[in-house]
Amino acid sequence: MSDLFAARSQMAISLGFHIIFAIVGIAMPLLMVVSERRWQTTKDPLYLELSKLWAKGTAVMFAVGAVSGTILSFELGLLWPGFMEFAGPIIGMPFSLEGFAFFLEAIFLGIFLYGRDRISPRAHLAAGVMVAVSGALSGIFVVMANAWMNAPTGFTLVDGKVVDIDPIAAALNPAAFSQTLHMTLAAYASTGMAVAGIHALMLLRQPSNAFHRRALTVALWVGIPAALLQPISGDISAKFIAKHQPAKFAAMEAHFETERGASLILGGIPDAATGETHYAIRIPKLLSFMAHGDFDAEVRGLDRIPRDEWPNVPVVHTSFGIMVALGSFMALVALVALVEVLRRRDLPSNRLLMKGLVATIPMGFIATEAGWMVTEVGRQPWVIQGVMRTADAVTPMPGLVYPMVFFTGLYVLLAIAVTWLLYRQIRKSPEVSEWRRTYTPARRPPQVQQHRA
Amino acid sequence: MPDALLPYILATVIVIALNAYVLFAGADFGGGVWDLFASGSRRKDQRELVAGVLGPIWEANHVWLILIVVILFTCFPPVFVRMSVALHIPLTLMLVGIVLRGSAFTFRTYDSQADDVQARWGAIFAVASLVTPMVQGMSAGAVIAGDLPLRPEGTFRSAYVDPWLGPFPIAVGLMTTLLFAYIAAAYLTVEAEATALQEDFRRRALIAGVLLFPVSAYVLFLSREEAPNIWTGLLASGFAVPVQAAAAICAVSALLGLLTRRFVLARFAVAGQASVMVWGWAIAQFPYAMPPDLALATSAAPAITLRLIVYALGAGAIVLFPSLWYLFRVFRGGRPAH
Lengths: 453, 338
Hints:
Chain A is mainly alpha-helical. Chain A has helices at residues 3-42, 45-79, 81-114, 121-150, 167-171, 176-205, 210-244, 246-252, 286-292, 313-342, 351-359, 363-377, 401-427, 434-439, and strands spanning 156-158, 161-163, 259-260, 264-266, 269-271, 276-278, 281-283, 298-299, 382-384, 388-389.
């Protein structure tokens, strides 16, 4: 394994690991704070239990997200010193703003988790809101910096030297809007639908469990809008990429030859050597329409890109297909759930919908990983699109395969530990049947029992 | 504010952040060290005190490090890059320590309360708390010594190992670990409610504080050969007398405070001693961001970047400091009655 490939693998694994914790760390506080608010307004103790359960989940995910994010901030230099020396002054500002957002998130999460008995309910709720807002902001700032790598602006190159730096123009680069929107929605859609799915799984076993019913409702409040908006945001992103990163777009769509009225290629295995895609479904003219809003528009293919500037077409096309397929399924389930809600149906009685929700548990996370594969692998061989090649950014240190293997092992162990811990937390959730609430006098809320695993 | 001043303002901010990191995150690592060395009949109480104090604040305290890194790579990219290349191995070890310390601490809090599970996470937390300051100190020692090559040359060992694996960096690592443990023990004397527990940490603080003297002296002695700018800065420059005087006053008051059980005084004096060490390093190294050749002014990013970061830091500080004040106020003193 070459040092460059080892460095790329280590970065990919670190990002791939961190991203899961980052998106749960962004969306989970929203769930937590919504149920906290419900508890304060309804005084239904199940919402309190729910808020506490989700706060524990947030605590675990945030802690691992914070430390794995620290790895990334150092890895920028440990693996890509050439990139950082060039990009630091241009794109450092969103990173420093992210530092503050992260600071606030950590401070108010500490207050929310440990301060319930020390501050007023109002202050406690406000702390939760701060966690949710600063979590979303820190994600947005980091993605702005990543967007700059796709659409580098805010500087001029004169004989290989950077002049006329404009950090604000760099932060507000053309890719920033579509990417931050897509990523933020991904966080809420993935987490909201996954949490809804977990409680749907419990409701399949105990359809009358009031705790899981409330959890399902709150999770869907977050999951449904995000999952429904995500395809629209994806379309904005795709149109942007078609315009600004033709090589990435062509690889996503396995579009080898420039043509008018280009077909949309679904699935299949692209062969970069022959420029053909086998076993694919083709829908005539749709790609032209999706990219440029005109069925006869010309779509640039990989043939217009020098061969040494092609990304890995099979990887990008397959990742893109996985992301779109999973995202579409999630949007479909969200739509069905929304229709059921609007028809005032009892959601847990719809077992097919519950099963659909269970199926979405891993989908948002897999789609997010696949989306990052598209973004990052699709930009190769560039680390900064059209400006700096990844090979020129890597550290001179040899033997990079060793840290790569080591970190991979560390991440695997952490993933096992976190999974086990969250499983234990969910198993401990209370068993309260809805009928008990019905037959319990209104002033005496249902007893919360702890089911010990 | 004139452009020429900007690198110095940002360097000052970095030193302030480093000072905060040492005083707060350093204490958290030190707390982990005392978890490792918990002993006697009150072993469990000692560990619970550490965990109770760390719980709400360690993540916020950790963010100072992120802030330092971010300012460094934005405002002084050549410094960040040279450090990242030459110190790849110790910085990687530090990251592993940070990850294991934080994760294990959180897992211990939320995993089963069974003794064996708690002991397993506790052991990882404690060992990582010891290793992390050690490699942080070694990395700092390598920077202070000015041994980081401009371009890695020669063998793997000479380029990537020798700069940080020598007597001087190891001594600085040891000093850092002892300092963090000292800070933690001194803070814990104030946090402990039971007298017996207070006495446990008083004894620990005294041990760490007394051991810190010979180790610091050894670092200073080695610096004459290994880090001459530190040696002259601390002993022969115009700052030498005030820095030495401040260090002496803090060190003596800290030990006296501990001996006479004036714990609040001891806590502030220890924090003062640690701060003098951080600022002493910074002043002695001035005007270099990284000796022997990277001066603050010449290694800084373009003025427009520096200016915007100063504004961002100013705006951030307006939100950050009240929030931090609130965090520490909420969790000051004992736990509430349930």
